[in-house]
Fold this protein.
Amino acid sequence: MLTLFVITWIVYGLTRNMPGTPLTVTLGETDPSRKLNPADIERMKKAYGLDKPWYEAYCIWLGNVVQGDLGRSISRKQPVATLIGERIGPTLALSGAALLLTWTLAIPLGLYASARSGSPDERAVGLLLFVLYSFPTFVAALFLQIIFAVWLRGTAWELPLFGMSGDGVGTGWWHRVADIARHAILPITVQTYGGLAWYSRFIHSTMEEVVRQDYIRTARAKGAGEYRVLFHHAFRNTLIPLVTLLGLSLPGLLSGSVIVEQIFTWPGMGRLFFESIRERDYPTIMGLTLLFSVLTLAGQLLADLLYCMVDPRVSVDS
Amino acid sequence: MSSRTSGGFSANPHLPASHTPMSTSGGFWVEAWHRFRRKPLAMIGFLFVITLVGIAMFAPAIAGTKPVICRYKGRLYVPCLAYFDRRLEPAIFSTDKFRGTYPANLTQKDPASWAIWPLVFQDPYRAVRDNEWPGRPANPARDEGQPNWSRGGWNLLGTDQYGVDVLAKMVHGTTIALMVGFVSMGLAGTIGLIVGAASGYFGGWIDLVASRITEVVMCIPTLVLILALVAFVEKPTIWKTMAIIGMTSWTGIARLARGEFLRLRSSEFVIAAQAAGVGPLRIMLRHILPNALAPVLVPITFGIASAILIESSLSFLGFGSPPPNASWGALLNDARSNLSMWWLVAFPGTAIFLTVLSYNLVGEGLQEATDPRLRDARK
């Protein structure tokens, strides 16, 4: 709770002291003739509470948040909660799919690597994963865009470059879902591969550590099969660090895709955050920061709880 | 005491060299280096980084339009240094109205002059004009500037939409990529070590406050914090970007340093030093830090890789320093609106990728070379 308070306080102070205000940035840049006269600015400042010093405005904002009111976006003329509600679906679809894909692929890959540890094919796969892990997401996104949207243009393999849905598709819901899926292939791929490499390497290294334990030797000595040792004895013990990792990856569900969403102009939360910083839209920035920070803390809490679930030696009470 | 004895050994002329008790262990770092050297991948990464340092140091001599060394009106000049800092450009060339164009002006204004030119006559900040180099056409602009490997092709890696040579831009961008890594991680390492050392060594309320601060910074998503800070900065320059990256990525180092200092605080050599009346600052610097450095160095190496990634993605998103920005990420940003110009993506993208990869390889090698647990495991 205290952490949350400090975080929002810091970010509020930062955003309010950024050069430019929401009023000057949005209107003045697009059209000089539409620049507001000073009296109008004063009036609007009063309306949005910008005339107060930031610490005072922070207290008001905090009071509203406690009552469940995130405020209204200045540049979009909508409640922040509505805005976030609109954007949360696409983001969850994108990062949820990416996270699911990552885990379902990473666990078999990590186990495969441990089963064949030291063999040439395992080394090759390991090196490939290491290379993938170092491959910057935005570079990969650009490469994929060039391949699928420029070079393969006009073929059956062409994939859309931007956005979440195109126009000119059929009216049925099935067509719409298919369209969104086609738009989502590239962003999901880009968001998956790095995590995939990281997690499978992580699983492999924790497995390596577990395999050296005495109880694995015992299991082998009593004649348990290689796969039984691997799954039943070793893998279950790697779950503890894995669960911690799962909890820590929770906030990434919403904030981790800022870059990917920006490249593919995916209408999600990361992009919203990006735009609101550009527009100096204080209420939206604060709402999103609050959400991200709450999720980070919730992820840590969840990790602790799951920890107790998979490790009977740890209990919630202690 | 011990140092005096061993010094006496090597200085003793009566003892033949073969009889001196040779120490087989050359200390922790020498040992670590020997183990590191045996890892081919880590060594490749290390050599790549060294190569990059070389490219960055000699960038104006590799690609540029200013002579490396030239003799003009009886004196020697090094105009290529102007690429490092504009003030290093010899004043005589501006008073003689060279306007940045050297080849024709040199021969015109002083027929007796000579010059040693960079390997590639291309400028990272502007397009080379027609006949600027005798007999050479102007750089192609827009999407005609694809890489030209045939004879007479002057742009090995192509040109961007304004006709600026990609190779020159990349060579000069190496400096930024390297500096981002070292400066921001130097800052992060310093902050992290100070915070971690203080909280680990002193404990008590200092530890409480420092840990809380670390926790708060950790809880704000890095990119969110960085974007907010970048927007906060009035006129973004590459130095401010580095400072911001450094100020946001010290938490992991601080945690590790805290653990190490906490562990070593109660070790015998520290207690001995305390008993001898050594002050806390000296204990931390002279006695604990050398022992805690190896575990901290590993996250710093990985941190360099991620700092380069962060800087290039910020430049890529248009949040970096304003043009002229020679950063590799800025090159990629140009490519975003011109996807058909694949060479704007392929070369800088590969450069970023290889740099990040080598730092990660070095970090991994360092980890295996210095971590005793991993060392014993890999038999």
Summary: Residues 2-66 of chain A form one domain. The CA atoms of residues 109 and 200 of chain A lie 6 Å apart. Chain A touches chain B through 49 residues (CB under 8 Å). The two ends of chain A are 21 Å apart (CA to CA).
